[in-house]
Design brief:
mainly beta, seven-stranded mixed beta sheet
Length: about 150
């Protein structure tokens, strides 16, 4: 049985501007594009993304049942599709559910700016589509000290 398209990302981009002193924060415009992924080609771009693999038992997981693997993420026609799958029979290692988790850790970080993303989140019992950002110092200070911004 397949549960299709956990998250469908059309594009992700980060914008910044000179964030010097301003009399009014409402006058700040973040219009200089500093990073984007339009998901061109037919593979996840390793210059933009790393994969978290496994199930996070070493500290980054939240007790999810799924096992993260790269093959659940595909790129086609400018779209990134992350597919949640239920496996019957189970995969080796007693794995019933798989998905994919992409991160920009050690590839890209920024301090100020705007994040634009278009995504379609899956509906269904047990699915928790999410896009979030953690502080670049997460591996040093942990969560929640590193901060978290939830996008979806």
């Amino acid at each position: 049985m397949r549960i299709s398209i956990l998250i469908l990302l059309l594009f992700v981009s980060f914008s910044t501007t000179n964030c010097g002193k301003s009399k009014s924060k409402s006058n700040t415009k973040f219009n200089k594009l500093i990073w984007s992924d339009e998901f061109n080609g037919n593979l996840v771009n390793p210059a933009n993304w790393n994969f978290d693999l496994g199930n996070g038992v070493d500290g980054w997981g939240n007790g999810e049942l799924q096992h993260y693997r790269a093959e659940n993420a595909t790129v086609d026609n400018g779209l990134l599709a992350i597919e949640a799958q239920k496996h019957q029979p189970k995969l080796p290692g007693d794995i019933s559910y798989t998905s994919s988790k992409l991160v920009t850790k050690d590839i890209f970080e920024f301090k100020y700016g705007r994040v634009d993303a278009r995504a379609v989140a899956a509906k269904g019992q047990g699915l928790w589509s999410a896009i979030w950002m953690l502080g670049a110092n997460h591996s040093i200070v942990g969560w929640p000290r590193s901060g978290e911004i939830d996008i979806l």
